[in-house]
Write a structure and sequence with these properties.
2 copies of one chain form a homodimer. Chain A has 12 helices and 12 strands. Chain A has helices at 6-13, 17-24, 32-45, 51-58, 86-99, 114-121, 137-146, 168-182, 198-213, 230-242, 255-267, 301-316, and strands at 63-69, 103-109, 127-131, 149-152, 162-166, 188-192, 224-225, 249-252, 277-279, 296-298, 325-328, 331-333. In chain A, the strands form 3 sheets. A 6-stranded parallel β-sheet of chain A has the order 2-1-3-4-5-11, with helices on both faces. A 4-stranded parallel β-sheet of chain A has the order 7-6-8-9, sandwiched between helices. In chain A, strand 6, helix 9 (198-213) and strand 7 form a beta-alpha-beta unit. The longest helix of chain A has 16 residues, at 198-213. Chains A and B meet through helix 4, helix 5, strand 2, helix 6 and helix 7 of A and helix 4, helix 5, strand 2, helix 6 and helix 7 of B. Strand 2 of chain A pairs antiparallel with strand 2 (103-109) of chain B, so a sheet runs across the interface. Chain A binds a DNA duplex (16 and 16 nucleotides) through helix 2 and helix 4.
DNA sequence: CTGTTAGCGCCTTCAT
DNA sequence: ATGAAGGCGCTAACAG
């Protein structure tokens, strides 16, 4: 692990470091022969330019920071379903970044709050993608003054900050419409998420609009409310079973709740979707594995991550326009929990079953 | 976003840049009064040291690289269950790193293979944590020559490279023993993962040992084999239903397969666990949401990520000892798919059900 | 305790 | 087309 610098390469190739630098950056103005020799030397030595020095000299980090909430931290607004997808978001962001020659650095906000992350990665990135809930709004604003920032999935778009979000309202509208339209259910309720969560609100809005469009009575607020977690779903199930009249269909605020709902409903002998239809939101992996497969709304997490990065890159390359708000479309995924009959994979007849 | 350097802070505080530097690094040897003034200036200016310059000067990036396979890339050994957890791994790694003052940079390997990532982040990290399957072994070896590398979840520990893995064998042993011991099942089969996957093999080994310990016949290879994916699980279900005699219990190579198995078995009217018990491996979130809740083996993904980082940090701080192989314990999670009766949450009697 | 002075490794004018 | 030389912002000896 000896130090290997551009000087070494230059010496090996018998040229000046300038030429090496030029070749490495693919800049023109280097004789083909020389270029070959440099390349050969680089390969022979296994030389990789020092990103630090390179960045310092060009005053460009080549790195984008990704800030997301610390899941284990009880003080953060956790339970937010977005968290479940940070993996996908990260991948989407990473890919978009790499295409543009950027790396992605990640940081989870800690208890201490947003001030920390400034120190943690503030000095080593060109820009930041901040997941909603990871940093308090005032802190974000402060951050945004010194660094380009794109907010992901925040509700009310912070003033003056670029913003990317999934079309929660449209998605909720779509499922609800499917329920009342395609299936003709009239008694449909919404199992909401945390009152504070922007996504949860947007979904409820979509739900109401769909109801209104169908000429059905529009509730002022969710019939029941969970917290986007499995526990929330169970609690909601309890509420429904205990007090409410059983509705014909339930639009759950997210898949986790929907799944828990289905589980608890089924456990007490209520058939889903025959007696009660249930839909989710997010399209988590197991939504299609459970029985019945969950009809839900797909969130393009990867694309969300990617869009954040491209937006950020635009800013980095000098885009000075007014703050943008990008809405990434969601998609209705019809499976069976709504009452539809999806084509099931052919079942092979059972061959031999010994024991019982 | 004007440039703000240490000089500005020094001027504002009426001291030399050295003092500012010392204060910022928490080094001793600065008069309390001066220290205060510096801190005040820093805060007033909102100064954040440039990580690039800092790194260059101290020849320490303060960054750890995390390499994992690109999921969408068909050429990578995907379907590997570890991938499902990269999120958890990342979080574990990030936290451990942050505690030590390091940031984490991530990169997914692309089709092009491992050579790329060297350029991508090679020059900007102090060390690398490489998830198995993301880079071909020879490339890893090459990498490890220039940078400290820790391998995560690789099978045969590459020669001379630090290595961290979950106790797959022990976990498989534990579930299997539970099945044959606690439940007394004798006809137990193993639904394997990809033949090449090291984890899959280790789990099979544990399975066999448990069988041997119980005095049962030990198969040479998995009765059926999937690929760790949901599709794999379905395929396995097909095989079992079609050709094999139905066993009393199935130890699936991972949760995804187990879940798909349960779904397909149930779909054709086979009761789980009454007729066939099924167990998984990994303990993914929904393992406990499905019905019946899945008995499985918990993989401490977060801890795996953290251990990789701490191991790496040891190396970075000069540990020159022989390569280490850390095995992180797994844990049996008994739920219901094995035939156990977990305490179910109390069911509230149904209040009012209108429509049917 | 404090300030001065070299670099860290590379990019980038600027001459040649 | 090519090389020489001056920073980029900071840390780390080194003198005071």
């Amino acid at each position: 692990m000896e130090r290997l610098t551009i000087y070494e390469v230059a010496r090996r190739a018998g040229v000046s470091i300038s030429s090496v630098s030029r070749v490495l950056q693919g800049k023109p103005g280097v004789a083909p022969a020389k270029r070959e020799r440099v390349l050969a030397a680089v390969k022979a030595l296994g030389y990789v330019p020092n990103g630090l020095a390179r960045g310092l000299a060009s005053s460009r980090h080549g790195v984008i920071g990704l800030i997301f909430p610390d899941l284990d931290d009880p003080s953060t607004e956790s339970g937010h379903e977005t968290l479940l997808y940070s993996d996908e978001i990260i991948r989407g962001a990473e890919r978009a970044a790499r295409v543009a020659g950027y790396a992605v650095i990640i940081a989870a906000t800690h208890v201490s709050g947003g001030r920390d992350i400034a120190r943690a990665i503030g000095g080593r990135v060109d820009g930041l993608v901040v997941l909603a809930g990871s940093i308090a709004e005032p802190d974000i604003a402060a951050l945004a003054e010194r660094t380009p920032v794109v907010l992901l999935a925040a509700g009310r778009r912070a003033r003056g900050i670029d913003h990317v979000a999934a079309d929660n309202e449209g998605g909720a509208y779509a499922v609800t419409e499917h329920l009342v339209g395609a299936h003709g259910y009239r008694d449909v309720i919404f199992a909401g998420g945390p009152a504070a969560a922007p996504d949860a609100r947007a979904r409820f809005v979509g739900f109401r609009k769909a109801l209104a469009a169908a000429g059905l009575p529009v509730p002022d607020r969710p019939a029941v409310r969970g917290d986007f977690s499995e526990a929330g779903g169970r609690r909601v199930a309890g509420q429904i079973l205990r007090g409410l009249a059983l509705p014909r269909a339930i639009v759950a605020g997210n898949d986790q709740m929907a799944l828990a709902l289905v589980a608890d409903l089924t456990a007490v002998g209520i058939a889903v979707p025959r007696e009660v239809a249930v839909t989710g939101f997010d399209d988590i992996q197991l939504a299609r594995l459970v029985s019945p497969p969950l009809t839900t709304v797909h969130q393009p997490m990867r694309e969300l991550g990617a869009r954040c990065v491209t937006l950020l890159l635009d800013r980095l390359s000098g885009d000075e326009g007014p703050p943008r708000a990008v809405v990434v479309p969601t998609a209705l995924v019809v499976r069976e929990s709504c009452g539809c009959r999806a084509p099931r994979p052919a079942r092979v007849p059972i061959a031999g079953r010994q024991q019982t």
